[in-house]
Amino acid sequence: MIMGMRAFAFLVGIILLVVGVGGFIPNIVPEDRLVKIFKVNVWTNSLHVATGICAFVMALLRKRGSHILFLRITGITYGIWAILGFIYGENEIFGIIANNSADTWFHVIIALAGLILGFAARKEV
User: What's the confidence (pLDDT) of residue 94?
Assistant: First the structure.
């Protein structure tokens, strides 16, 4: 199970880096929508890139439980981000972070996966 969670943290890193970096490429972000679905801006892209880098670092660290810590923190953080997304609806979160329903559900999926895997892990892992 350890390699499974470590691999998942690594996969989350890849997904978030692709989404984050992709958001900075004008040709694939017409009208500030990544693949015409996700509403993005520099703040959203930066948060995804930062989380993706953290995922890589924590997944590659050989320190015991680092990937579990990443999954837990990401689950909580993205859970809060998803709740804010539902509250703000189609408006920017705090007036700066791009948001729409597709973004919110993307964050719900990441949050649930992080929470389930991170907190289901055995303590001695």
Answer: 96
